[in-house]
Write a structure and sequence with these properties.
By secondary structure, the protein is of the alpha/beta class. 35% of the residues lie in helices and 14% in strands. A six-stranded mixed sheet has the order 2-1-3-6-4-5.
């Protein structure tokens, strides 16, 4: 598929041929769901923790005699049935991540790019460059109609552009190596530089 290339000023700068293997697939929600779930699970800290009955600070002395009280049998105040006692089968520190093959992760990224292309939310610009002024870049972004946009550049990103975009709400920029399914899908507009297109095609071929 062919797409027009624009500049940050809104002008045109020729066109680019996009690979159908990356941008022409029929998006599958099940593939995207599995990859996003893998990403979010790996990002989860898993540091939640409660104390078991062996960890709470209580005496281990038997609280009252076994028989003759008319009450239930109890050994220690640290039992889960008592207030302040240990928690039974509560959360422990663990990893929530799970495995997903590299081939499947690559397929998910292709479907995410194809989903944006099919929705008409894919834009290609000649380069992501700026003088480092947030106000100037904010005007350009507003004139282009980008409200929640993700810009994917080539192997390196322009430092001045990153500095100018830092305080613009809804605008993020990533190098091609950082392109991922979750960030692509949660933005309304996906913006690729020509260098970004070449880098993604080389990465996903």
């Amino acid at each position: 598929m062919k797409l027009d290339v624009i500049t940050m000023d809104g002008g045109t700068s020729g066109s680019v041929e996009l690979s159908d293997d990356l941008f022409g697939l029929e998006p599958r929600a099940d593939i995207l769901h599995r990859v996003v779930r893998w990403q979010r699970n790996n990002a989860q800290a898993g540091t939640h923790k409660v104390k078991t009955r062996s960890e709470v600070k209580y005496s281990t002395k038997k609280i009252y005699r076994q028989k003759g009280t008319g009450g239930a049998r109890h050994g220690a105040r640290s039992a889960p049935i008592f207030r302040g006692g240990g928690v039974y089968k509560g959360p422990v520190v663990r990893s929530h991540g799970h495995e997903l093959t590299k081939k499947f992760r690559k397929l998910g990224l292709k479907h995410a790019l194809s989903a944006k292309a099919k929705a008409g939310a894919l834009v290609v610009i000649d380069e992501a460059a700026s003088e480092g002024k947030t106000s100037a870049l904010a005007k350009q972004v507003k004139s282009l109609g980008w409200k929640r946009a993700l810009i994917i550049d080539g192997a390196d990103v322009n430092e001045n552009f990153v500095q100018a975009s830092r305080n613009i709400e809804g605008l993020d920029i990533l190098p091609s190596a950082g392109a991922n399914v979750y960030d692509i899908l949660k933005r309304d507009t996906l913006v690729l530089t020509k260098a970004g297109v070449e880098a993604l095609e080389a990465r996903l071929k």
